[in-house]
UniProtKB/TrEMBL annotation:
Organism this protein belongs to: Bradyrhizobium oligotrophicum S58
Active site location: 106 (proton acceptor)
Function noted in UniProt: Catalyzes the reversible conversion of ribose-5-phosphate to ribulose 5-phosphate.
Subunit structure: Homodimer.
The protein's name in its UniProt record: Ribose-5-phosphate isomerase A
Gene3D superfamilies (alphabetical): 3.30.70.260, 3.40.50.1360
Length: 233
């Protein structure tokens, strides 16, 4: 049996090699990014000077526990690297993210970074995005109208799928750090992710979506055969 958690840690460890003293880092959210923050804490305790911007309250709490110095994008205007995981990665290094519910802050932080390094086990590598349900963060107000507009956007992009309001383990509606809700949509293969991304972004009730187009610069994938490092074409 392949230890997926060990693969995630291997990818995180390889990404840590890109970190140099003095850097300003975006710190991702999720199971693979969690390994990176743990390892980064060890590096900080060994004397490396960095500062991080967390992409969620969960990552903030973990980074503080690990002794990683933190700042905000109000205090600094640019990050050197964001290191984050992904739910899917295609050969263009476009991504689906948001399985952990932090897609809005993740996209803000990635967009403020000179580079985004995506770390994952190699099961996340796909030829076409869409196997993983696409998370779409929405305003609760006017939800039905927003969903109708989303359905129209899907039709224009040549995809369709059932829209499911995300629930927490306790059965209540999942609420993001920004106070929004998430609709998950299992679309199948997305023929044209950039087009769908643009259509969704134009909907007033959509806060953000999990299509990360043109943001990933490097992917570090860990698999049974070792580490692969892929640069965006």
């Amino acid at each position: 049996m392949i230890d997926m958690d060990a693969l995630k840690r291997q990818a995180a460890a390889r990404a840590l090699e890109e970190v140099e003293s003095g850097m300003r880092l975006g710190l991702g959210t999720g199971s693979t990014a969690k390994h990176f923050v743990d390892l980064l804490g060890e590096k900080v305790r060994a004397g490396v000077k960095i500062v991080g911007v967390p992409t969620s309250e969960a990552t903030r709490a973990q980074a503080e526990a690990c002794g990683v110095p933190l700042t905000t994008l109000d205090e600094i205007d640019r990050l050197d690297i964001t290191i984050d995981g992904a739910d899917e990665i295609n050969p263009a290094l476009d991504l689906i993210k948001g399985g952990g519910g932090a897609l809005l802050r993740e996209k803000i932080v990635a967009s403020a970074s000179a580079r985004m390094i995506v770390i994952a086990d190699d099961s996340k590598w796909v030829e076409r995005l869409g196997r993983f349900p696409l998370p779409i963060e929405v305003i609760p107000f006017g939800l039905a109208a927003t969903q109708r507009a989303m359905g129209e956007a899907f039709a224009k992009a040549g995809v369709s799928g059932q829209m499911l309001l995300r629930k927490s383990a306790d059965g209540h509606v999942f609420v993001t750090d920004g106070g929004h809700w998430i609709i998950d949509v299992r679309l199948g293969e997305i023929e044209d992710p950039p087009r769908l991304a643009g259509l969704l972004s134009a909907i007033p009730g959509v806060v953000e979506h999990g299509l990360f187009i043109g943001l990933g610069s490097t992917a570090i994938l860990a698999g049974a055969q070792g580490i692969r490092v892929i640069q965006r074409p």
